[in-house]
Amino acid sequence: MAPLTLIVNESEDLSKPIADILTPAIQPIPGGHSPISAAAEALDALLPGIDEDGQVFGNGPGWLECFWDCFHDFARQIPHDSVQADRLVDIIKALKTEIPPKYPHLREMDRSYLWAHLVYLGPTLHDSFNRMDDGAVAFPHTIAAQARQLNHQAFCARLGGAGLITHIEWLGTISVAAPLEGVMKPIRGSRDLIDPDPRSVMELPFQIARAAFWIKYAAHKWYGKDEGLVYGGGPLYKQAMKDGRLFRKRYKGAGLCPERWNLWKERFGVVACCEGVDNATTQIAREAVENMERIEREYRTHVSGESC
What we know:
By secondary structure, the chain is mostly helical. Helices cover 52% and strands 2% of the residues. It is globular, with a radius of gyration of 21 Å.
């Protein structure tokens, strides 16, 4: 695999020093030697300093926002299916688990520890989640911009799947539900109708790829859980709830109930068999179904092991 060089954002002071650390650390190293821990230590050394009262010198919150913004920028550059993408998340995990915690008293984030709580990673992720590189509002216009957006979505899903960031489930739910739960078809002079045809979904290849990343990297954290996810869902899901097929008293609002999981799996299957959808997208949909079935098997094995 060819080495990957991260492109520095000249407008960010932290971009170059972070890139200098990450670029060699994310490369696949023959022989199993891993510079992940060394990279985490080098990133920790970039901190502007903490005084005897635990206060970050300078603008602590602003510094951390810039720090994580650089990570989001670099994540957009790293191919989603590469070893480098896995290693970027491994470095963040090493920051969280291997660097002795510091107590920075960061304004509204008081009583949060660096790096154990990965302070400000969550807010910067939410701010950058739907950021479009080419100025588009709903979907990136160009193939290059779509690739960068998909790389970042896979990065977010990996963070959620690794348990490095909490309260990210609703973002993943939106990304999965959007291409799978149908669209409304406007009918002039009459009520709008639910259109279940996958070909009616805007930018279907892009949206299916994005949904598949969340299934592959993060959905094991959702399956078998009873907590509600704060997203009302698409028309197929809402219609099923209205019909009573998805209603469960234990859920508060929309939740990732087993029936919704099965709806997603069924809809991925529809995409996989849909005529007129490109081969790459149908293959991605088939792989998503396989990943969902793998998650189901692993969950059953886990539950049966606990009951023994």
